[in-house]
Fold each of these.
Amino acid sequence: MKKVLPSIWEVRPSVRLEGEVGLFASCNLTAGTLLIRGDEFDETWVTWNKLNIGTDQPRIKGLIEKWCYFDDDGVWLPRDFKTLPVYYHINHSCEPNIGHTQADDWVALRDISSNEELFMDFRLTCLAPWYRMECFCGTPTCAGTIRGDAWMERSFAMEKLNSFPPYARAKVVAYHGLDT
Ligand SMILES: [Zn+2]
């Protein structure tokens, strides 16, 4: 008989972003809980050159900026924008409760209650220097703007070094000439 596992999260209207949806815990999650393993992700890295998005395709660029991790070299593309996995609905917070491990797993960074909205820090995942998005996270340490070049500041890079996902961490280490 096939074993059906309960979902740990679900999509609902965001508590922070009016008119948007977000990802919510559907059970209590203790700090360190593994939410999704790195090898369960289904994205492919494609360079901007290979993707060759012309100015005639603003719709594709819009989809990528809304949904994907990207930097100035390329983008992690989903298999199909029509059938995005549930975890794509996670929103940003400057004080996230979900983070990446160096195995690229997603884990709970602290105890999270059932029905709490889940947040990731996009400054750790979108390393495109030109990227800017106004932040409405409302946390005490809110940066005001989500900047795709935050990682270029040495103090930010050092403070968050082990919080970047592996592909981003490698880029940060190379940029700052860190010996790790
Ligand atoms: Zn913020």
Note: Residues 94, 135, 137, 139, 142-143 surround zinc ion (CB under 6 Å).
Amino acid sequence: MLGLALVAVAVSAATAVNEHAPTGVHIAFGTRDDEMSVTWHTLASNPGDPTVEFYPGIIDDVSESSDAPQVSRVEGSTRAFIDGGPERTVRFVHRVTLQNLEPGAIYSYRVGNPATKTWSRLFNFCAKRNKSQISPAKPLKLLALCDQGHRESAGVVQLVAAEVADPATRPDALIHCGDFAYDLDTYSGRNGDRWLSDVEPVAAYVPYMTSQGNHERAYNFSHYAERFTMPGHGARTGNAYYSFDLGPLHVVAFNAEAFFWPEYFDEAYMSRMYEWLVTDLRAANDDRANTPWVMVHGHRPMYCVDPKVPDLTPHANKPEFAGRLRVGEASGEERRGERVRG
Ligand SMILES: [Fe+2]
């Protein structure tokens, strides 16, 4: 009986979930070049403000000794996100923006809550490098992928995590253009939680820059809008369209899904995104001396004519929209051998 009781206690301890524990830590470039946003969630509401502690350089543990590196603490905000499914599961999404980072400097950090004394492990990142720090000896490196699931993509995550873990091969940033977890909302969002934990060895170390795909459509793309923090977050874009510069590159994310879900995206939304995109690309074109490369990413091909694939058949507005763009394109959906207007 004692043996059984011990087993029961051990099992219960192993499966206990600390609802205050930070889950799915990920970072992204901020609105300004010297910013980095840090996002995570907890299943319980924490007293006080979410906090990031960060340190110059790489450290392995948080020491109280006098020669420990100087810690900086930044507080952020929390938003309760209610999943749209029948369980109405609540997650508390915490966001902190680190500012005045030195270009190209390495920082270690952990996230958590001083009131509950619940902290993540330590991670580290390299602040956005400026143009003068990008050279043939240390070129700009960007990874891009799309369509990555919790159950389907363990091997890919493992490969990318190994590349990120090695300082010699770590990219400046990663772009994920849609379809996360299959899906973020599955099992009342628990599948999305697991996926964010899967990619933490990547996304907590390298800015994880995103655009949304068709698999984010549930509940008006709310899991995508609520779980990520892209530049300009808090505006009307729900992380769906934004841009940033990275060395000689101007990177633009746009909402390719807007053409396929009229129940969510109306004419006013289309006009707003279109005007924003035109203004952004004109400015980028005027600034080619500074950013000679312009890269646009979205989940679907910009221009698609295969009538046998209803999912890819262009919306009536799409050819006109696409036809006015004259930039390269990265896209998640299959190209099926088509020529893409560009
Ligand atoms: Fe897709």
Note: The longest strand covers residues 90-98.
Amino acid sequence: MNHDTAKLNCEAFQAQLPELIGSGENAAAHPHVQDCELCRALLADLETIAEAARLLFPSVEPPADLWAQIESKIRSEEASAHAN
Ligand SMILES: [Zn+2]
């Protein structure tokens, strides 16, 4: 397993993740998620947040911007977690 390649795949996958979810695709079925524990965890976090968002805003489809905001928030949390 080449970790550099795996990381590249993660970045590519995470870049398209908001679009994937926004378009109604089953992101959990994506081949990268099947192979990548990191992105499975990320997706689980996103789904938890998405579920909370549905409870808060049951009649509103989350705009694409929201996914970008959620994603950047998770990334900043991960970045601060790594810093510790
Ligand atoms: Zn990944």
Note: The chain has one domain: 10-83.
Amino acid sequence: MGVKNTFIRLVGASLTAVFFATIGISCNKNTNARSEKSTVTANATRDDKSNFRKHIISKDFISEGVAAADVNKDGSIDIMAGAYWFEAPDWKQHEIFPGKTFDPATEYSNSFLNLSLDVNLDGWEDLVVIAFPGEPAVWYENPQNKSGNWQKHAIDDAVGVGNESPNFVDVDGDGRVDILCADTRKSQIVWLKAPVQKDSLQWKIFAISKENAPGTEQFSHGLGLGDVNKDGRRDITIKDGWWEAPEDPTQGDWKFHKANFGEDCAHMHVLDVTGDGLNDVINSSAHKYGIWWHEQVQEAGSEPQWKTHLISKDLSQTHALALEDLNNDDKPDLVTGKRFFAHNDSDIDPGTHDPALLIWLEFMPGKTPYWEIHEIDNDSGVGLNIVTEDINKDGMSDIVVANKKGVFYFENTMAK
Ligand SMILES: [Ca+2]
Ligand SMILES: [Ca+2]
Ligand SMILES: [Ca+2]
Ligand SMILES: [Ca+2]
């Protein structure tokens, strides 16, 4: 690869000139790409060393959402996927509600995203299910080791949970995870605040946008929470821009800033990848090829500008993207993969029949940031949400996914 040395001059808020050495397409881990003319350049390298041990929890397509929690309170983390939970350590299958095995080629499941949360604050982890985009979310009450199906509860029958990448995040910082999503009734971005008192199990709905806002349709793609402007308040991103959080996140009508974060994407993450004090945005294509970071470039007194940089075009249908430090080097890495047959066995998405890769992208921050791509597996991929938690309690985050290939737990072996 030819290496071209040019310089980009960026004038920051302090009017200090910052210079970046620019090189061409990277071809090893010590190089990176940054170009003045083309801001879309590859900057990832490959290393197929897995560092993960695959546990097949189920080979059935039962859910594209997944959650992990100690369901039966025996001290081991169990796995929940749609209608079933799987009991550690042998992953015995138990029914939460009547389920079935779906046909990957022709069907969608009845479980797009899952979240474990003790909704009713009784000390037992319950299961939140977003069955299908646009449908109201529900939760199933953990029966405290009693037999039988779990009781189903509505979160709010009126709210159709839109956008295909709802985030399970603590929006108001009270220590409880909330649901950030769209409300398809009024086409608004909302967050659903999880109950905080046993005697009041109503979820509160807070709209943060005006009605008829972008990113709020049933099948809109791309949503994230992060502090874009570094004022200490986490903002909300969609592919067309971001809403600036006010001091009180329960307040409505956050100020919208237009921005171009590329095409239809999955979860969006906000992170200063260059270390220049300005937060950047990372996202992945939901149905096509591409993982990107969007560099925030700011001139004094003006709205931030965004430069798109390609991280990888290795795999298509990266319909879930998690940010997690997998190798414990205090640098948050990325986890994604192919959502195999995202639009069934059709020609709608490019690369439909490519291998169902699951990858992690090891983050190397700096003025010329790059991500070293590690293939974890080639016959699983992701669903619509990824669990990155320390399942086996060895101090390293593990990965759990559910998708059209089945349900899988990838044990992180990097500590060993
Ligand atoms: Ca509970
Ligand atoms: Ca902010
Ligand atoms: Ca790391
Ligand atoms: Ca672990």
Note: Residues 10 and 16 are 8 Å apart (CA to CA).
